[in-house]
Design a protein that fits this description.
This protein has one helix at residues 51-54; strands at 2-10, 20-28, 59-68, 74-83, 89-94, 101-107. It is mostly beta strands and 108 residues long. The longest helix is centred in the middle third of the chain and has 4 residues, at 51-54. The protein has one domain (2-107). It has a 4-stranded antiparallel beta sheet, with no helix packed on it. Strands 3-4 form a two-stranded antiparallel sheet.
């Protein structure tokens, strides 16, 4: 299963010029060969109207993707990026058990 999230963040800082940065996140969740398999729930929804994102200060950040199964394992992957993007940034992390490949593309 592959999940793709596109997060467009613009006008984040009221005291600075408006930023029109886009974050594209792709998360692969492998189907495990186990007796009782349940598809994962995906809960990654952001928009530029959320207070925390409107006040996001420039700096170095980390995208954290975590997968946890009720009767199974747990895995956490991290991808660093800089906000706001002044040039295109690409990052990826490869999971070993609960997650496949996670990619992040940040575009100014």
């Amino acid at each position: 299963m592959r999940v793709t999230l596109t997060i467009a963040l613009s006008g984040l800082l009221a005291t600075s010029p408006a930023y029109a940065t886009t974050l594209d996140i792709n998360v692969e969740v492998p189907k495990l060969n186990v007796a009782e398999y349940h598809r994962p729930y995906v809960a990654l929804s952001f928009n530029d109207k959320q207070p925390a994102l409107k006040q996001l200060a420039p700096g170095n950040y980390t995208l954290v993707v975590e997968a946890v199964r009720e009767v199974g394992g747990r895995e956490l992957l991290k991808i660093p990026f800089t906000w706001p993007a002044t040039a295109a940034q690409n990052g990826r992390a490869q999971g070993a058990t609960e997650l496949g490949q996670v990619t992040l593309a940040v575009k100014p």
